[in-house]
Amino acid sequence: MLQRRSVLNAPVIRTKLPGPNASKLIASDEKFTSPSYTRAYPLAVKRGEGAVIEDVDGNLFLDFTAGIAVCATGHCHPDVVNAIQHQSERLLHMSGTDFYYGPQCELARKLAEIAPGDSAKRVFFTNSGAESVEAALKLARYHTGRQQVIAFFGAFHGRTMGALSLTGSKAIQRQGFGAMLPGVTHTEYPNCYRMPAGSTPESHMKDCLDRIELLLFRKTVPPEDVAAIVVEPIQGEGGYIVPPPEFHQRLSEIAHKHGILYIVDEVQAGMGRTGKMFAIDHWGVEPDIVCLAKGLASGMPLGAIVARSEIMDWPPGAHASTFGGNPISCVAALETIRLLEEELIENSAKVGEYLMTRLGALQQRHPLIGDVRGKGLMIGIELVRDRNTKERAVEEAEELVQNCFLKGLLLLGCGENSVRLSPPLVIDEQQAETAIAIIDAALGEMESA
Ligand SMILES: Cc1ncc(COP(=O)(O)O)c(C=O)c1O
Predict the structure, then answer these.
(1) Which run of H or of E encompasses 61?
(2) Domain identity same for 313 and 351
(3) For residue 303, which atom of ligand 1 is closest to its CA?
(4) Domain holding 61: CATH number?
(5) 3-class state of residue 410 by DSSP
(6) How many domains does the chain have?
(7) Are residues 162 and 302 in the same domain?
(8) Do 298 and 372 share a structural domain?
(9) Residues 51, 155: one domain?
(10) Could you report the per-residue pLDDT of 69-115, keeping only the tens digit for each?
């Protein structure tokens, strides 16, 4: 059964925000929880259903974050919940590293089958996006016997030391953490909204690729020493930046010419979010390794890497994880994939297109909107103070997120001055319209202030 719409109608804001119960919870959280967490606004959640979040004071919000692009099938999809309940009565844990059990085996087979490209695949299970990136990095080094890695400015790959070394998004994420993993070189990711004057998307893309081939490979990073190029198909945290149509094809050709593995981090963009199962499918490229997490299990912690079988050649003991491939997470993932395949990928493409059209109309009326971009339900809105100079409207992007929260729409920022729309893939056009009306009103207030 597909849960298209929540029975709850959102938004309904009954208290001032944060309400009394949220204020109490937040006061306690501030005392005992790590101050490193970045809370965008004071939302204290009680429950979720479809694309609706109820807070601890009974306020209802329309969720266009999906818990940072995680709850692909909506909050608490009944089929996912049923699968979790059923599995939890049978086996909570046994460690797929040491023993065999059905859900992990079945999910590995399914992921191997749906991963981009025709080559045979094998799967390693993790608990998070960062762990998937760590696993990919280790496998690439192990398989190639090479040390160096190329990653991109603006990329986000996670916060454990290996993944953090590949992350090139915000300095605060690295500041104070000392030396990163040696052998990582960052280079420019094509951004067609901010390309140098006089460039076309094609010439800008070529400049970015030439920088690797004609500069890095010739001056500082011999290609024979490079294990992998690690790339997001669409940059997520970096600002929802969609590269030009030929980019991944051309970049992967450069990689393969030199025996370098092409690792695609689909942690945020994967699992139906862009209107195809994997975002890289829009570019028709078969990566050597795909990193997954977030949307994979509708909110249960699970990550995976899917690699070409000939590449996943590490021996027993080389890499493992106690919790990776947890049986409950695996059944949630199997149910998630079924729902994606049956209807939600198509819905993501359809409602995503609708949202893009409606946002295009908003852009006509709101000078603050510099750019609208994305695929499926992975959509970024970049705010600028001046469309000619493209001066970044950093505070305004933050203000838009805050204003929308007060009006009952949950959004998150990305990049320096962009706002991302990453709702659960169950939303319909009516909910998209509600979000548009709130963004319209919030921008209107900001522009007339
Ligand atoms: C593309 C990408 N890779 C990796 C990660 C890290 O995932 P996690 O927070 O589960 O470690 C993220 C998280 O936002 C991400 O967007």
Answers:
(1) strand 60-63
(2) no
(3) 10
(4) 3.90.1150.10
(5) strand
(6) 2
(7) yes
(8) no
(9) no
(10) 999 999 999 999 999 999 999 999 999 999 999 999 999 999 999 99
User: CB of 54 closer than 6 A to ligand 1?
Assistant: no
**Which atom of ligand 1 is nearest the CA belonging to 269?**
1
For a mutational test of ligand 1's pocket, the pick from 127, 170, 241, 267, i.e. the residue with the most ligand atoms closer than 8 A to its C-beta, is 267
Range of the structural domain that residue 368 is part of: 20-36+43-77+345-448
> Does residue 248 lie in a domain region?
yes
For 66-80, letters b (16+ CB in 10 Å) and e give bbbbbbbbbbbbebb
Pocket perturbation via mutation, ligand 1, pick of 132, 156, 159, 329 by most ligand atoms within 8 A of CB:
156
Q: Does residue 149 share a domain with residue 181?
A: yes
| AA letter at 226 | V
Ligand 1 centroid to Cα of residue 303, in Å, is 10
Torsion angle of C-alpha atoms 228, 229, 234, 240, degrees rounded to 10:
110
Ligand 1 within 6 A of CB of 339: no
Q: Do both 266 and 126 map to the same domain?
A: yes
Residue 122 CB: number of other CB atoms within 10 A? Answer: 17
- Protein residue whose Cα sits closest to atom 3 of ligand 1: 157
One domain, residues 281 and 350: no
Of the candidates 312, 317, 303, 307, the one whose C-alpha atom is nearest the C-alpha of residue 132 is 303
Q: What does the pLDDT average to over 12-31?
A: 97
340, part of any domain: no
237 within ligand 1 shell (Cβ under 6 A) = yes
pLDDT tens profile 119-147: 999 999 999 999 999 999 999 999 999 99
Instruction: Output the DSSP codes for 351-409.
Output: HHHHHHHHHHHHHHH-TTEEEEEEETTEEEEEEEEETTTTEE-HHHHHHHHHHHHHTTE
Query: Which pLDDT score is estimated for 6?
Result: 64
Can you give the pLDDT at residue 1? 43
Is 128 near ligand 1, meaning CB less than 6 Å away?
yes
- Judgement on whether residues 273 and 388 belong to the same structural domain of the protein: no
Per residue in 222-240, pLDDT (tens digit) is 999 999 999 999 999 999 9
Q: Which atom of ligand 1 is nearest to the CA of 236?
A: 16
Q: What is the pLDDT of residue 449?
A: 82
C-beta 268 within 6 A of ligand 1: yes
